[in-house]
Amino acid sequence: MKVGDLEIVPIVDGTGREYAREVLSAPGGDRWACHPDQLDDHGDLVLTLGGFLLRTGDRTVLVDAGVGRIHNDHYDGGGFLEALAATGTAPGDVTDVVFTHLHFDHVGWATSRGEVVFPRATYRVHTADWAHFVDAPDADPGAVRKLAPLRERLEVFDAEHTVAPGLDARPTPGHTPGSTSYVVSSRGERALLIGDVAHSVVELAEPDWEAVFDVDPAAARAIRHRLADELADTDDLVAAAHFPGLAFGRVVTVGESRRFVTV
Ligand SMILES: [Zn+2]
Question: How far is the CA of 165 from the centre of ligand 1 (A)?
Answer without folding.
Answer: 26
